[in-house]
Amino acid sequence: MSNANQESALIELFKASGKAHHQAFLASNGEDAEWPIWYADYLREPLGQLLQVTFTRSQLIYCLMHIEFERQALLSNMPANVMAWPELYTNHFIEQFAATDKPSEDKLALYYSPYCPYCIFVRSAIDKLKLDVELLDISANRKHFDALVAERNRATVPVLKISAATGNNRWMPESRCIVQYLEKTYGESKD
Ligand SMILES: N[C@@H](CCC(=O)N[C@@H](CS)C(=O)NCC(=O)O)C(=O)O
Predict the structure, then answer these.
(1) CA angle 76-162-14, nearest 5°?
(2) What ranges do the domains of the chain cover?
(3) Fewest CB atoms within 10 A around its CB: which of 28, 32, 88, 189?
(4) Cα 77 to ligand 1 centroid, rounded to whole Å
(5) Distance, CA 120 to ligand 1 centroid (Å)?
(6) How far apart are CA 90 and CA 7, in angstroms?
């Protein structure tokens, strides 16, 4: 599936999930305090198929809540700039989980700080997989710190920057997601 087809299929899936959720909670006009659980159960299989990822239920619940908190924070800060939620969720899942076109040609760089336990977790996965990843210490080099903040509007590490030969860059936060991506993409028999 091409990247554009994958993107539109994800947007459609999120739209359909919204409709199905509203249908299921008509009586409360869509109100559902346990919405992440409902959505995780609805999305787990089709989302996993579209992204070729095996999601655990708790991982998906965590991801959905994380995106929603970020969305709410964006809405309260700059409502005019926030895109529609199916597009925003799609961007997030593509950034975190979709494979790139030619992973063997991608250049990888890790923004990290030496004392951050999440960064140590990612670096140990990089060592285990014997990957060639440029290490950019944001606590030792102001240039790396500034580049990270300019891109992400925050200095949280670790962040994996994936630079494709086409010139496309992807910035992947969240240690667990980074490790999962690296293992899935470069582990064992992968290229
Ligand atoms: N959930 C994140 C947590 C990352 C995190 O909290 N990193 C800390 C360093 S250990 C950090 O960058 N804090 C500073 C900040 O967020 O600006 C992950 O698993 O990667």
Answers:
(1) 45
(2) 3-97, 103-186
(3) 189
(4) 21
(5) 12
(6) 7
For residue 70, the model assigns a pLDDT of 87
Ligand 1: which residue has its CA nearest to atom 13?
Answer: 156
- pLDDT, tens digit, 9 for 90 and up, residues 113-123: 999 999 999 99
Distance 121 CA to ligand 1 centre (A): 12
pLDDT digits (tens, 9 = 90+) for 20-53: 999 999 999 889 999 999 999 999 999 999 998 8
For the CA of 113, the nearest atom of ligand 1: 9
The pLDDT tens digits of the residues spanning 58-69 come to: 989 999 999 999
The pLDDT score that the predictor gives to residue 189 is: 55
Residue of minimum CA distance from atom 2 in ligand 1: 174
Which of 67, 69, 157, 181 to mutate to test ligand 1, by most ligand atoms within 8 A of the CB atom?
A: 157
Structural class in CATH, domain 103-186:
alpha beta
